[in-house]
Amino acid sequence: QAIVREFLGVQSRTINGDITVIGDSKEQKYFVRVRQSPENHLLVDEIFSGEPDEVLRLTAIKIIESIDPVVAASYYRNRKNIPDALRMVDLALTNEKTEDDTFALSQRAQIYQAQKKFELSKADLDTLLSLDANSPQGLGVQSYWYNEQGFYKEGLVYAEKQMKVKPDMWHAYFNKADSLIGMKLDAEREFLEGIKHKPNKGWAY
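Predicted structure:
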């Protein structure tokens, strides 16, 4: 297996490291160092305090921050931790992975929308859609941007664009439903379709 992987140019990566007790073990202070091999890239190099389970949780989050800041941004945003979400967006926008940019801009545009900073949100959406005009995330957030301000016809246009690009993406159906409701039109079909793709959205029922 190793020979075949080497022949195909597939590189095996591993994550390893160690957790060391600092001082008196009763103080529950730990030095955590985690690396990714074979690059020997340092993912975590910090001191944490607390119960072992909490230290492992914090370590896991730090690993995600290093490996995939967009996922970390989403994690923090969903938990209303906006400063750390924005910190991860900045990291994603400045790393070497350009494919992270559209997702990072989508996250920040949603944060700005929640803060009613619509001009800042629109600036990020303009940049996002200039990078990828068919980004399903970008089209969906743009639809929501219009709906939030009462521009329901425009919101409907972007919801339908999102459906065309990614028909199984539940956001599009709920965005379209919001647009139709704003236009005083029937939205039952769109809600039912959205529920079919995302049945755990209680508010949709």
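Summary: The longest helix spans residues 52-67.
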